[in-house]
Write a structure and sequence with these properties.
Layout (H helix, E strand, L loop, with lengths): L2 H21 L12 E13 L9 E4 L1 E12 L4 E16 L3 E15 L8 E17 L9 E12 L4 E10 L3 E11 L48 E2 L9 H16 L5 E6 L6 H21 L7 E7 L10 H7 L1 E6 L3
Parallel strand pairs: 11-12
Antiparallel strand pairs: 1-3, 1-9, 2-4, 3-4, 4-5, 5-6, 6-7, 7-8, 8-9, 10-13, 11-13
């Protein structure tokens, strides 16, 4: 058995299986479906194999390009009737000559896996019908059958605006077949099912209800004034030293008590120096003074998370570094309350 006959038998068997399988597919309600006309055109590739019938003529090139026009009518969501005219191209013969194929026919389409009633989305279909084949050639030939059954199968994707794309394969008689890609347009719309109006439930009889007594709202309590820290004193240091003096420890004791009195207060702890050494050395020294102060306050029970260390070195003097008194005022640690 040659390949052509195998293809025809396989395709016919597949179409029969599809139609048999379509019987058990549950049909959707047709209440929201309306029949529509449609039309389209397709382009494709054909395989043409005229029978030389023992003559010296042979088929030199069987593949050609073709196209078709078609018009159809959707009777239901699954069944459509479609007529077409197809130009399948020409088979080139050797030693010389061509055989052209033209076919017109009328067939039925049955859609499987078509769940949307208005032909939207993907649809797999089978096709069968009756066609009339005509040939155009200068060679002597004889057609065995002018009319014959044709078969087809395809996959369609339809958009909600009526446009659709199709890819399909059709077998015309025993010596011609074509695979096409088509664009079609459906005209008209779908008929949506009208919702059934429900009768409103009976309303209960109105019952007189005594008004609830008006209870005057309790006055809001006046906001409590915020608790603030007292005076934040400055801690002074000896030259080139980060050690706390006795007076400095007394000031820090008072500051620790203030911080315990206002537990939500947070402080910036800023260290400073005079300019007697290099700027890099003074920056390190100011960091040491800040660390000494913070260590002392944490020993007094103040959480380190409430203290933010900052070191400025000699960059922010409060007095002139040309006098001993000015340098003394610059060797310091200051405190600034942060926003709560």
């Amino acid at each position: 058995m040659d390949i052509r006959n195998q293809m025809m038998r396989v395709t016919k068997g597949a179409i029969a299986a599809m139609l048999l399988g379509g019987v058990v597919v549950p049909a959707a309600s047709a209440a929201d479906f309306s029949s529509r006309w449609y039309g389209g055109l397709g382009l494709g590739i054909s395989e043409l194999e005229p029978d030389p019938n023992g003559t010296a003529v042979r088929v030199d090139e069987s593949r050609s390009s073709g196209g078709k026009l078609f018009i159809g009518y959707d009777f239901t969501k699954r069944f459509s009737l479609e007529g077409h005219y197809a130009d399948l191209g020409e088979a080139k013969m050797s030693p010389a000559g061509e055989v052209g194929y033209k076919e017109m026919g009328l067939g039925g389409l049955y859609y499987l896996l078509k769940q949307r009633p208005a032909h939207e989305g993907f649809g797999l279909y089978a096709k069968v019908g009756v066609g009339k084949m005509e040939n155009d050639t200068d060679l002597r030939y004889e057609r065995v059958n002018d009319y014959s059954l044709f078969y087809g199968a395809g996959l369609e994707y339809a958009f909600s605006n009526g446009l659709a794309l199709r890819g399909e394969v059709e077998l015309y008689d025993e010596d011609a077949r074509m695979a096409t890609l088509s664009l079609l347009k459906r005209f008209g719309g779908t008929r949506k099912q009208q919702p059934v109006a429900k009768e409103p439930p009976p309303q209960p009889e109105p019952v007189a209800v005594a008004p609830a007594p008006v209870v005057p709202a309790a006055p809001k309590p006046a906001p409590k004034p915020p608790v603030t820290l007292g005076e934040l004193e400055v801690i002074y240091f000896h030259t080139d030293s980060a050690a706390l003096t006795r007076r400095a420890r007394a000031k820090l004791d008072r500051l620790a008590e203030e911080l315990k009195r206002v537990p939500d207060a947070h402080l910036e702890v800023a260290g400073h120096t005079d300019n007697r050494a290099t700027s890099s050395y003074n920056l390190v020294l100011s960091k040491q003074r800040v660390r000494t102060v913070i260590d002392y306050l944490t020993q007094k029970g103040i959480s380190v998370e409430r203290l933010r260390p900052v070191a400025y070195g000699e960059t922010r003097p409060v007095a002139s570094n040309t006098t001993e008194e000015g340098r003394r005022l610059n060797r310091r640690v200051e405190f600034r309350e942060l926003e709560r």
